[in-house]
Write a structure and sequence with these properties.
193 residues, disordered C terminus, 2 domains, 8 helices, mainly alpha, single chain
Length: 193
Amino acid sequence: MSDILTTFTHVINSPPGQLVAGGVLAGIVWKFFERVEAVLTDQTKLEIAVWLLDQKKLRPTVQSWPNTFTTLFNKVFGYRQLSLLCLGRSCLVSMLVACVWGVAFWPFPYLGLGELRFEGRFVILVGVGIILTDYVSLLITRVCLRIASNSNNQRFIVLLLALDGVVTACVALLGICLAHALITRAPFIITSI
């Protein structure tokens, strides 16, 4: 059984195999939409075409996304950044993500940590580092959402949210580097990411 699976994997990973797999996938998608089109009435097809061509209907929907995300963000984390509710929910989300990440990647072989003993101060230092960096990231996201909800320029909104993603990734990397330095008691240098 493993020989068949290995052979199949090698065939799919070869360039001709990828071409055939892509062709099969394109055929499946083509047939799916062909079947959907056969079921639709002419009036429904016309309504879909008008909806796709009418940018004035689509523009208010796209422009309301920042407001929707801001409302959802405020419902989850509260309306004020400097509140116990926001801090508590941020801590809860940070710890849940850290636990899932820890279970998925334990024992961190690529960081060269080996077996770790859980000391009380170790857990506290790493937890505080993760909580602080995530809370700062949350503040940056809140500010970006507020700016985006006040703007009508869609390109600016996309650029702002992309910038927020980059800054959030940098803050998370800073948190990982701090945790690595605390765990290994090594200098604050990225050596093996």
